[in-house]
Amino acid sequence: MKFIIIALLLIASTLSAMDYTIETTFGISYYEEYDDPETNLNGEVMLYLLDEDNITADAAFRVGDDGNYFNRARVKLIQSWWDLALGRQQIGWGNGYNFNPTDIFNAKPLGAAFDPAYAKRGRDSVILTTYWSDILCMEVIYGFAVSSETDMDGINIYRKTDWDLGGKLKTNLFDYDLAFTFTYTDYRTRSINDYFQEVLEPRKLAGISLVGSLPVIDFGVWLEGTYDIETEDYEFITGTEYVFLEDYTLNIEYYRNSSGEPEYENYDFNRMFFGELLAQDYLIPSLRYVASEKLEMSAFAFQNLNDSSSSLGLVFDYYYNDYVDFIITPLYLNGCRESEFGIQKELIGNYGIDLKVRLFL
Amino acid sequence: MKTGTLLLLILLGSFLTAETADEILVKMENAGEYTTSEMESEMKIVTAKGDETKMRLMSYEKRGDEDFSLMWFTEPARLKGTKILTKGDNIWYYNVRTNRDRLLTKSAKKGSMMGSSFSYDDMDMEYTKDFTAQILEDKKDFYWIKAVPLDEDRKYSYLKIKVRKEDFLPEIVEYYDKTESKYKEMILDEFVTIDDHPTALNIRMEDLSNGKITYMITDPETLKFNSDLNEDLFNEKKLKQ
Predict the structure, then answer these.
(1) Which H, E and C letters describe B185-241, residue by residue?
(2) Mind telling me how many Å the CA of A204 is from chain B's nearest CA?
(3) Which of A13, A158, A278, B219 has its CA 20 to 30 A from that of A50?
(4) Which residue from B minimizes the CA distance to A57?
(5) Which long-range CB contacts under 8 A does A127-132 form with residues at least 24 apart?
(6) Smallest Cα–Cα separation from B198: which of B24, B41, B31, B37?
C-alpha cells in the first residue's frame, strides 16, 4: 500500500510536467454457469519520461483487480547502429496473430489477438539490437527470472522461469521479412495448489519466422515455428490473410504443437491452468470488418481439429469518442464433455459475454 | 505578315509547347521537386450524421528510387504511439501495446486507413509508375486528365484529375468504379508555397457511397521540405523507438 501511495504521489507531482496517458478498463463477464456477473477494474498510468534522440524512458504503472505493479519501466539508449533497452518492457517477437512460438519471453494468452484492450505483460529484460544495414538487424535478449501466482476460485497457480536468453537475426528478402531465432530457457517450475508440481528441464529452441505476400494475388502469408533441439518437439503457426472491398480482412491460421495430445482421452488438463493448449492441431479463421471509423467488428473461431470442439466469438469495438470505447465479446463454446472446449463449457457454460469499457485521458 | 500565316504560326507554336498526358504525369510526380518532407497533420472524419472523430499524426516522407513514408499517431490516447511505415509496396504496422511491428499483407494497401475515406493506396500514388493517362480538357489554367491504373485490382477503374498548370498539383481527383460511377472525390485546397515548394494544406476526401468525409489538415508551421531526414527514420529501429 505504501508503495502505491508513493507511486501515486510521484505520478501526481510529475503529471503536469511530462507527457502521460491514463487508461482505465472496467470489465463485466457473465457466463451461463455463473451465479453473478464478475467484474474487473484496472487502471494504468503511462508516463513518457524522456524522449530525446539518444535516450528515451517511459513507465506504465497498473493498479486494480489484476494487481498493482509496474508493467513497464524502461530506459532505452539509442545510437546510430545499436540501441539498448533496459528494464521492464514488452517483447514482441514473431508474425503469428494468435500464437508466437518464437516469443518465449512474454507469450500472449489464447484470445488476446481479438481483444483490443490486451496489452502484453512486461518482462524484466535487457535487449540489445544492432542494425547492420537498413534490412539486417540482430537482437539479443536476456530475460531475468520471472514468476507469477494467480488464484482461480481457491486454485493457486504458480509459475516461475529462472531466466531466458534469445538471439534473433532479421532481414528482408524479396519483400519477405525473415528472421532466425535461437532461444534458451532455463528451468521452469510450476505448481497447482499442493497436488501438482513440476520442474521442466531447460529448453533450446531453434526458430524461424517468415512473412510476406504472394505475388500477383497479394495474399499475405506467414510461417513461424520452433524446433526443440533436445526433445525434437516442434511448434508452428502458418496463415494467410486478404483485405477485400477496403473494409474486410479474412484471416486463417493453422497451429500445430507436436507436444500436444491428439487423443482427448489422454489430455493433461493441468496444462489448461497454465494457459496451454491441450491438443496438437487448431484452425483459427476470422473475419474483420471496419464498419466505420467508430466501429470495428470481428468474428472468429478456435477449432480444435483433434477433438472437434470449438470456441466461437464475436468482437464489437465501438469508439464512442476520443475518451471512451466499448468492447463487447459474446462467446460460444462447443464440444463433447471430454473435449478441450467441452471441459470449459462444463465449467463456465455454453455461452457468455464480456463487456469492457475503456476510458482514456 | 499575312494574318493566315500568323495564325498558323501561333497554332504551330501552341502545338509544340502543349504537354502530352505522359509529360503531365511526370510533372505531377515531380511537383515541388522535393526529396523529403515532414509535417504534423490532423485527420478529421465526419460521418453523414455529423459525428466527428479526430486524430493527430506526424508524417515523414522520403522520395527516391523507392518512396518511404512514416506516419506516427500522437492523438487520441488510444492510438498514441501507433506507427505505420511504408516502403514501396510494403506496409509495416507497429502496435505499442505489444511492442511488435509486423509486415502487413500487400492487399492491406487497398484497405481503409484508420477507418477514414483514404486507403493506403490513396496516400501513396506514383503517377508515372502506376498510371497511363489521356488529356480530357486543356484549359487556360488547368488540365482535366483521365488516369487509368496499370494494376487492374484497384477498386477504381480510372481517375479524373484536375491538374493546375501553374504547379502541376492536383486540385480535384474523382474516383470512378468498374461501372463508371463516381464513388469518391478528393479536393485539395489552401495552396501555399513553403521553402519554394507548392503544396496543398487541406485535403478533403468524400466517400459518396456513405457520405463520410475525411479532412487532412496540415499545420503549415510544422511543414518542412528537403530537411535532413535520415533513412534510419524509415526502418524497424524507428518503429520501435
Answers:
(1) EEEEEEEEEECCEEEEEEEEEEECCCCEEEEEEECHHHCEECCCCCHHHHCHHHHCC
(2) 23
(3) B219
(4) B241
(5) A127/A84, A127/A85, A127/A86, A127/A89, A127/A91, A128/A82, A128/A83, A128/A84, A129/A82, A129/A83, A129/A84, A129/A85, A129/B237, A130/A81, A130/A82, A131/A81, A131/A82, A131/B232, A131/B235, A131/B237, A132/A81
(6) B31
pLDDT, tens only, A83-134: 999 999 999 999 999 999 999 998 888 889 999 888 888 999 999 999 998 8
- Compute the average pLDDT of residues A327-352: 93
Element counts in chain B: helices (H) and strands (E): 5, 14
User: How many contacts does A have with B, using Cβ atoms within 8 A?
Assistant: 123
pTM exceeding the 0.90 threshold for the entire prediction:
no
What helix, strand, coil percent values describe chain A, rounded to 5?
10, 60, 35
Facing B105 at nearest CB: one of A21, A80, A218: A218
Chain B: residue nearest A248 by CA?
B111
Q: How far apart are CA A219 and CA A234, in angstroms?
A: 26
Which among A219, A247, A325 has CB closest to B112?
A247
- Cβ(B42)–Cβ(B55) below 8 Å: yes
Q: Do B97 and A177 touch (CB under 8 A)?
A: no
Residue A119 to residue B98, Cβ atoms within 8 A: yes
Q: Which of A177, A243, A293 sits opposite B107 (nearest CB)?
A: A243
Give the count of beta carbons closer than 10 Å to the beta carbon of residue B217: 17
Which residues on chain A are in Cβ contact (under 8 Å) with B119? 246
Grid coordinates given for B197 = 515548394
Amino acid letter, A72:
R
| Omega cis (within 30) before B76 | yes
Residues of A in contact with B232 (CB under 8 A): 80, 131, 134
* A293 to B114: CB separation less than 8 angstroms, yes or no: yes
Nearest to A211 among B88, B103, B231 (CB): B103
